[in-house]
Amino acid sequence: LWTALLGPSGSGKSTLLRLVAGLLPLPADATLTLPRGTRIAWMAQSDLLAPWRDAIGNVTLGAHLRGERPDPGRARALLEAVGLAPADHAKMPAALSGGMRQRVALARTLMEDRPLVLMDEPFSAVDAPTRHRLGELAHRLLAGRTVLLVTHDPMEALRLADRVLVLSGSPAVPVEVPAPPGAPPRAARDPVLLDAASALLERLAEAVA
Questions:
Q1: Distance of alpha carbon 94 from alpha carbon 75, whole angstroms
Q2: Alpha-carbon torsion 204, 177, 165, 132, what sign?
């Protein structure tokens, strides 16, 4: 199940993700209930690749930091799954394009194999066609997981998510927006999706007017 979270800048979208991830303390009057032992994977807006490690080294970074034995074979399989050729697996981040770096970051997220995945504008740093392809790729490879996606793109939210929430008001509260019919990822050319994206964009524009 994918849930997309939209809202004006400063409405608290990224803060909400950090609260869920346990990176910020909960306010005294707030509660957050997750199943016991829930493990979380985080995919940030920037790729956050370690510049001194090659693609495989970045995908296995989590295991390295935990003192676990890495699985380079699985890392290679994931890099190929996200569309990186074997010749790119040993390249350092500086030798990769922005889209390729985002693919490495996605493979690293998949390598963690967590049931809950938090994604904070994960594809905003790449061009529109690459963003489109990476969104569909992420949706396919993260099947069966719970994903909370923060995005500023109404089309991305409505294409990929099962539920769409808009943070509005002060203090901000989530308001659900009906998702278009059909299972995500939805076709970008669908007239119903295009109409829904236009309406959602106007709604977001009014929120910051």
A1: 19
A2: negative
Pairing mode of beta strands 163-168, 2-6: parallel
Packing angle between helix 98-112 and helix 72-81, nearest 10 degrees? Answer: 130
**Main-chain dihedrals φ then ψ at residue 117, nearest 5 degrees:** -120, 125
Report d(CA 154, CA 207) in Å as an integer: 14
Nearest to 126 by CA among 157, 108, 140, 105: 105
Q: What is the mean pLDDT of each run of 10 residues along the chain (209 residues)?
A: 89 83 74 71 90 97 93 94 93 94 92 92 84 89 92 94 88 86 92 93 78
Residue with tokens 């869920």: 20
| Amino acid occupying residue 3 | T
